[in-house]
Amino acid sequence: xxxxxxxxxxxxxxxxxxxxxxxxxxxxxxxxxxxxxxxxxxxxxxxxxxxxxxxxxxxxxxxxxxxxxxxxxxxxxxxxxxxxxxxxxxxxxxxxxxxxxxxxxxxxxxxxxxxxxxxxxxxxxxxxxxxxxxxxxxxxxxxxxxxxxxxxxxxxxxxxxxxxxxx
Length: 167
Hints:
By secondary structure, the chain is an alpha+beta fold. The protein is 46% helix and 20% strand.
């Protein structure tokens, strides 16, 4: 009887120790919700010709902030590499002429259709919205999760693009 109590105590102690270790090291053991969104940032963070920025709360409007990854190519080679990674088609001759006249070409797509090959957790990225500025050589990925977020990001982007073209 006494031996059984000692065994129960030791097992309970081991379970408690394992629970404490799990809680303490959970960030290393269990993936955090934001980690999947940082996968793109982590891929480009050490690339010398790409300025990668992860913004945890990119302000969309007065009530909404969304995580976003911003990739800015600092030279033409890096921009072509980003275009290949994200399956962005080549510009037409007319679009290239617009760029030459310092008029930007904006594009938008859902990441599901231009998913880079290095992404391992594609399901978490499928509904992300991508906004591309050819003249700035920038790709912005908004990590959207709801229809409301997708609509708000879309509205913000087109408001800014309208302002760009109005000037």
